[in-house]
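Team,

Forwarding the record for the chain on the shared tracking sheet. I've put the sequence and predicted structure together so nobody has to dig through attachments.
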Amino acid sequence: MSQMPSDVAAHNRALIEDWRTNGAPPGRALLLLTTTGRRSGERRTTPMMYVRSGDKLLVIASNAGATKAPDWFHNLAADPRVHVEIGDESYDATAIVPTGDERAPLWEDVTTQFPFFAEHATRAGREIPVVELVRS
């Protein structure tokens, strides 16, 4: 797994600008997720890794193993209407956070494909939310 940049916000702004100028980076499971700020009401775009589980498109709120979930997760928990840019597609979606018996097989699939997410959960000491992005 690669090292986190020292200025994540600047790194993300550059990645988003490059994506929108030159298209999605080839060979990387990245998407742009736009949420509405829960306090500001402003649209916030975050580049992030996605995971395919069967026909489901998932993003994982691991925050690289931090003890709290990332801001984008809190935003979509407050307002699940999101916008997804993936590959050459761009569409509105609803973010659904499965729990219990619905979450378990998704988490198992995620951690089988990408074991570092299990390491994130151990380091964070919390259940890492799995978010399904359902096209509207």
